[in-house]
């Protein structure tokens, strides 16, 4: 099926989500890779999240799901509309804190999106 990626089963390692077979990719890598990916940026309306697909150097298919300022702002607005006490994001140190202008813009947009 289009845009369906199955994950192999791995043993539970004793922590939330530790049985997920994926790996973490830094936001800087995602932002550089998404534009040259097979699919370009895709959006899942159910998850309210972006993702993209690519093949690696040996031809293996990969799917990368992530949050961006738009998806984070939707989640922050949901939290606010329900009167919940807060929101956070997983591993903010994966953002790109280099001095490149584009990286600074992307990182600032991510942090700003947390406060609707």
Automatic annotation (TrEMBL):
- Biological process, per Gene Ontology: chitin catabolic process; oligosaccharide catabolic process
Q: Which UniProt keywords apply?
A: Glycosidase, Hydrolase
Q: Name one GO molecular function term.
A: chitinase activity
Q: Which InterPro entries match?
A: Chitinase_insertion_sf (IPR029070), GH (IPR017853), GH18_Domain-Containing (IPR051887), Glyco_hydro18_cat (IPR001223)
Give me the Gene Ontology terms describing cellular component.
Answer: extracellular space
- Identify the residues that the record assigns to the GH18 domain, covering every copy: 1-116
Instruction: Extract the Pfam families matched here.
Output: Glyco_hydro_18
Could you identify this protein by its name?
Answer: DIAC acetylchitobiase
Q: Which organism is it from?
A: Chloropsis cyanopogon
Gene name of the encoded protein: Ctbs
């Amino acid at each position: 099926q289009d845009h369906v990626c199955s994950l192999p089963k791995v043993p539970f390692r004793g922590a939330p989500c530790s049985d997920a077979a994926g790996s973490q990719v830094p936001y800087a890598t995602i932002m550089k890779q998404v534009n040259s990916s097979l699919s370009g940026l895709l959006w899942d309306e159910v998850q309210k999240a972006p993702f993209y697909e690519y093949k690696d150097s040996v031809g293996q298919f990969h799917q990368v799901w992530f949050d961006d300022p738009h998806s984070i702002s939707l989640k922050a607005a949901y939290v606010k509309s329900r009167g919940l006490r807060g929101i956070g994001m997983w591993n903010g140190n994966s953002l790109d804190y280099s001095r490149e202008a584009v990286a600074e813009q992307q990182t600032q947009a991510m942090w700003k999106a947390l406060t609707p």
